[in-house]
Design a protein that fits this description.
Elements lengths: L5 H7 L11 E6 L3 E7 L19 H19 L6 E13 L8 E11 L3 E10 L2 E14 L1
């Protein structure tokens, strides 16, 4: 069971501020599951325009955070990942169940549905406390950087 801090995350994901949406990986079990954390703060740039006076994290960014966490599961589950990165290639059955607002801690859980050499399918769910905020089935392809 691996845990990754922000420096380890940055050594794997190509994303950087303001688009790095994972603060910590709390659990990582190859070919099984991943749990990541996104601390949602009012300092996020997207809150300036979504929505002023009533800040809500955009659903597409919740999906992106889920994809970034899910990418770690693929990266950790396949061999020969040097110079490769998991690309988010598809989303199905996305549902948003509650708003995510500044101050929330978004806990993102991913579970392998199918894992192959270069393609993965992951069921992802995001929670605030124990309340489901969003869910989707995500597809990834491992490709050269």
């Amino acid at each position: 069971m691996a845990k990754l801090d922000i420096n380890e995350i940055k050594s794997i994901l190509p994303h950087r501020y303001p688009f790095l949406l994972v603060d910590r990986i709390e659990e990582l079990v190859s070919n099984e599951k991943v749990v990541g954390i996104k601390n949602v703060t009012i300092n996020e740039e997207f809150f300036q325009g979504h929505f002023p006076g009533h800040p809500i994290m955009p659903g597409v960014l919740i999906l992106e955070a889920m994809a970034q966490v899910g990418g770690f599961l693929m990266y950790d589950s396949v061999e020969n990942t040097e110079n490769k990165v998991p690309y988010f290639t598809g989303v199905d059955k996305a549902r948003f169940r509650r708003p995510v607002v500044p101050g929330d801690v978004l806990r993102i859980e991913g579970k392998v549905l199918r894992m192959r050499t270069s393609i993965a399918r992951i069921e992802a769910k995001s929670f605030v406390k124990d309340e489901l905020a969003a869910e989707a089935r995500l597809t990834f392809a491992l490709q050269e950087k």
